Amino acid sequence: MHRPLHIAGGLISLSLLLLLSTCSALYEDQIRKFDWRSTHVGAVKQVHVDLNHFQPRVLLSTHEQVVASLCPKSGEIVWRQVLEQKARGDIKLLQVSGFSDDSSDTAAAPVGSRLGFDMLTIQGHAPALVRGWNTNIGTIEWEWSIIPLNTERAQDALWFYSNSVLYHVVPVWRSHLEVTAYFATSGHTTGTTSKIMAAWIKTDSCLLSGTYFVCQDGKQLISLDLLAKSTQVIATSLEAEPTDKIEALAGLNGVLIANKKLVSVNKDQAVCPELSSASYVLGSFNYRKVVAYADLADGNLKINAVYLDNCSPVPELQMSLAFAEHYGTPSLRSFDCKLKRNGDGKSCLFLFGTSAESIVAVQQGRVRWAREESLANVIDTQFIDLPLADTEGTLENEMKGKAVDANNLKRDIVSAFMRRITTQALQIKSLFLHVIGLGPPPTDTQRAGLVRDSFGLHKMLVLLTRTGKIFGIDNIAGKHHWKLYLPNVSGFENAEEMRLIVQRSSKHFPLQPLCAIVAKFPSSGNGVLFRFNPITGRAAEGGLLQLDFQIKQIALLPETEKDFVKGILMLDATNKVHVQPKHATPLADGMYLYTANVKTAELEGFYVKHAGNDLTCTPIWNVRLGGHNSEQHIIGVASKNPIEHVHSQGRVLGDRSVLYKYINPNLVAFVTQAPDATHKSVLNLYLIDVVSGSVIFSMTHRKVRPPLHIVHSENWLAYSYFNDKVRRTEITTIELYEGNAQANNSVWSSLQAPSMPLVERQSYIIPTIVEALRETITERGITNKHVLIGTASGGIVEMSWHLLDPRRPISSTTQGREEGAIPYIPELPLPTENHINYNQTIARLRNIYTAPSGLESTCLVVATGLDLFVTRVAPSKTFDILKEDFDYILISIVLVVLTSGSLIVRHLASRKLLKQAWK
Amino acid sequence: MWTKPSYALIVLLSCILSGSWGFLEHDSWISIDLHHSLSPSRPEYFSHRGNISIPSLNAGLSTVLQNELSESELEELKTLSQQNGFYRLKATVTYPNGNTQRFLTSSKACSLLASQLNDVLWISLDAYGFVTGITAAQDPTPNGSGCSSEELAQIKEKRFRSDVIIRHAELAPVPDTGSFIQKYEREREARERGEVRDNRGFFAKYWMYIVPVVLLVFISGATNQDAAK
C-alpha cells in the first residue's frame, strides 16, 4: 500500500521540478504586448532651452537627481542619466557652456566648446563630483572630485562658474566665507582658499546671484561681490519685507527677485524695477537681451517680455493661452528663440515647471507638449473595473431585480419574463437604430474605449502622486484618460503617505464607482477627504471635504445596504472616532482599530462601539516594542491584503496528513530596529494579532540593518534586509501552521484563537539588492502565489514560493521530496528569464502593486519608481485562457472534416448494409 | 475534559522551546501588579486583582497571588458579560532598576466567566528581557456555551486561577551555508569513490524503461484482439 504512494510522491516532486525549470518567460513576439513603460525625469530643477545648437535641445537637471536632454519639438527624452541618490547625488549646479552666468558672455553668444566642456554638473558635497558631459549623447567625458576638509560645513556649500573657473563657496554661518577657485575642466586650484570675513551671513536667508553672495535681513539685502578686488559690503533696501524667499535671476550678475519684483545689487546692472510677476527668466530675442515673465490669471497664462536695456515691451513675445487647471501653478524656467527666423517670435519656446511637477512647453500661443513628471513619485495605486456597456448593464439590472424579489416567486416569473421581452425589444430597436445610424451617441467612456472586456483585464489604473496629482490611466494602452490636481494636500505624520481608497467598486451598475483620497491639509494639520469618480475623473459626493480633526488612523467599513459605499472610519488625534459618510455610522459597531507610533514603537488597540447614535472608542490593549528606553523604532509594518482569498487551507505532507495553515486575517508584522552595543544593529520581527493585542511570535536578527522590505500574505511572511556581518542582502521567510487539526474552520475569532502556531522559518541569500517585495494576488486565490522581487538594477524577478519555502529540507529526505519541497540551497537563483520586465528597466524602482484581474490565472502588476511599468503575470501559467497563437483555423477544419467524414461514413455504411441485406 | 492535558503539554512544550531557542544573556526578575476594570458604569476605575513575581525570566517560574472577587464584583462581572463587554486588565511591570511600564489587555468578560475565572497570562519578552506585551487569554470555549442569564446564575467561582507563560524572543535563522557545503562535499566524495547510491524508488528509477514496455504490451494486446476476431 505504501509503495505506490511513495512512487506517486516521487513523480509529483519530479514533475514539480520540471515545472519549475520550465520558465514563464516571454517570447520575443510578446514584447510590449501586455506591458508598457513610461519614463520620467522628475520635477525640474534647472533647465536650459537651446534652439540654436546644431541639434536643438532642452537640457535639464531634476530633483530626482537626473540629468536629461529632451527634444524641444515633442518633449521626448533624447537621453537620460539617473545619477546617485540622496545627498551624494544632489545636483548643485548645471552649467551649460554658452549660458554662462558671466555677464560678458551673453546668452546670445554663439555656442562654442572652446571652454573645454559642453555641460558640467556638480553633485553632492563630500565628495563634490564635477562632471563634464557630452550633451549630444549624454555621456560623461571627464570627472573630478574634491573632498572638503570640513564636511559638515560643506553641506551648505554653493558653487558658481565664471570664465572657465568654478568657485566653491563654503559659508561658515555668522563668521566668514571660504572661497576656492578651481579650473572647471581639470580641478586644479588656481590659488589658495580665500577667507572673506562676513559676520552677517545667516542660514536659510542667503543665496548666490552670479558672483554676488546675497543675504536678506528684514527689509535689507546685504551683498558682496566675491570676485571684486575690494570686499565691500553693499546694502540695498527693499520696499517691504519679502513674504517669500528671495530668488536669484539666472543669467544676470547680482539680480534678484524679491516680492515679485526685480532688484539689482550690482551697480553695473540695471533692471526694470516696475515689473511685477511670479516668475522671470532671462533670454535673448533679435540679438537683444530680454526678460520674459509669465503669470496665471483666471485660468489663462499670460506671457510678456521686455528688453533689458530700455524696459520697452516686446510685442512679438506677448501671448495669452488657456492653461489647464491640472498643471498647477506654472513658473517660467527658460526660453529660447531661433535666431534665423527673424523677428516674428513664433519660433520661441517657453518652458514652464509647475507646482504639479509637470514640464510644460509653450510655443505660438499654445501648449506644444507637456510631461507629467509627478508620475516619478507615485505613492498609491488602484485598479478599477471599467463600467459595463449599456446592454450588459440592463442585463445585470435584470439579474439584480430577480435576486431581490426572489421570495414572491410567482409574480416574479411573469414580471421577469415581461422585463426580459421588453429589454430584448429595446436591444433590437437600438441595434436597428445603430445600424441605420440614428442611435443615441455613445457615452464619453464608450467613445474612449473604456468598456469592460470579458476577462476583466482592461481596467482603469488610478495613480496618486506625492504632489497630489491623480491620474486615470488605461492599463492596456497607457493613455492618460483624466488628470486631477489637488494643490493643498500632503502626507501624514510618521512618514505616512496619502491614501487612495476605493469606496464603491464598479459592480453596482447604475451607481458609479467611487474613490476617495485621504490626506492632510498642510497648514492646519487637519484631515482632508476628496471623493471622485475614478472612471471620469470628476469630483463626486461634493468633492473636497475639509475635516475638523487630525487623522491618526483610518479603516474601511463594510458596504452600506443603501448605496453600497464603504464608509471610512477615522481615528483622530484625541482618540475619538468619526465615520464618513455619516449614514454608515452604525456599521462601525464592533470594529477594532490599532495605532503604531513609529518613534516610541508603542502599539495601541481600540474597540469601537455604536450605542445610541454615538460612537465610543475604548482602548483595549497596548504593546511596547520600544525596549527600555524606546531605543527601538518601527521600520516596517505589513498587514495582509484585505481582498485576499486563501483557497487551500492546508498543506499535504509526505505521509498524506494535512498540516493546517494558521490563517489569521488580523495578524500584522512589525519590524523594529535599534543600534546595539554588542551586535551593532539589531532587527526584531513581531507578529501581533491587532484585535486581541497578543504577540504571537517574535524573532531577533543580530548584526542586521535596513533597508527592509516585507511582504505578508496567507500564512507566510518574507522580508529582506542587509546583513552587516557578511555584507549581503538576505531574505527570511516564515510560515505559520496551526498543526494537524484546525481549531475553528468556519469563522476566525482572534479572541478565541489558538495561541501558539507552529512557526517554520528559513533564511536565504539573495544575490542582489532588494528594492521592493510584493506577492501576486488573484481573484479566488487558487493560483500559486509568487513573490515579485524588485531589484536595485531595475528588474522585477518573479520568484515562486516553492523556492522561498521555509520547509525546504536541508538533507534530501524522502519526506521532503514527497511533500514537493525542493532541497535547501542557501542562495536563491535569479534566472534572467524570470525577469518579468525583460529589458524594460525601471529606474529607481520603489514599489510594486498587484491586483487581481477577472481571470483566475492572471494578476495585474504595476511597478513604480522614476519610471512606471505596467504588465500582467500568470503565476500558474494561463490555464484558463487559450494561447494567443492558438490555431482556430486548424481546429475548425479538423472539426468540420471529422463531422462531415462521420456523416459520409454513416451514409456509406447504411448503403453497404442495405446491399448486404439484398444479397 | 480534553483541553486540560493538552494544555499542560503546551506549557511543557513552551518551557522546552524557551529553553532551547530564546534565552536571555542577562537573566533578571520582574514583578507585575494586576488591576482590573469590572464595572460597566465606571470603565476607567481599576481595582486591584493581585500580583505576580517572576524571580527568573529564564526559568520562567512564577508566584501568583490574587485576591478573591467579592460578591458585588462578581455581579458586576456578570452584568459586564451580559452586555458582551470587555474585561480589561491593567498590568504594571516593575523591573529590577525600579522602572515601571504599564500594559493593558482585554478579553470578553463572558469567556472569562465561562472558563470559571481560569486564565492564562502570556508575557512576551523582547531579546533583552523587557516585556513587550501581556495578554490574558482563556481556553477557547466550545460554541454555544454563551452567557445566558441561567448559565451566569450558576457561576459561583470567585477565585482567579492564572497560569503564567513567558514567551521569549527567538533568534532568527541565518542562511545555512555550512551544512549545504558539507552536504555538497559528502556527495562529491561519494561520487569520487563511486558509491553514489541511488535511493530513489523503483518506479522513479526505471520509469523510462517500464513505460515503453507497458505501451508495447497494450499495443500488441490490441492488435492480438483484432487478429482473434
From TrEMBL, chain A:
Domain (EMC1 first beta-propeller): residue spans on this chain: 25-148
Domain ER membrane protein complex subunit 1 C-terminal: 713-918
GO-annotated cellular components: EMC complex
Compartments it resides in: Endoplasmic reticulum membrane
UniProt similarity note: Belongs to the EMC1 family.
Domain of life: Eukaryota
Keyword terms of this UniProt record: Endoplasmic reticulum, Glycoprotein, Membrane, Signal, Transmembrane, Transmembrane helix
Listed name of the protein: ER membrane protein complex subunit 1
Signal peptide feature range: 1-25
GO BP of this protein: protein folding in endoplasmic reticulum
Membrane topology, record value: Single-pass type I membrane protein
TrEMBL record, chain B:
TM helices/strands, residue ranges: 6-24, 206-223
Pfam families linked: ECM10
Membrane topology, record value: Single-pass type I membrane protein
Localization in the cell: Endoplasmic reticulum membrane
UniProt entry keywords in alphabetical sequence: Endoplasmic reticulum, Membrane, Signal, Transmembrane, Transmembrane helix
Any one Gene Ontology cellular component term annotated for this protein: EMC complex
Primary localisation category: endoplasmic reticulum
Family (UniProt): Belongs to the EMC10 family.
Protein name, per record: ER membrane protein complex subunit 10
Gene name, Swiss-Prot/TrEMBL: LOC117573732
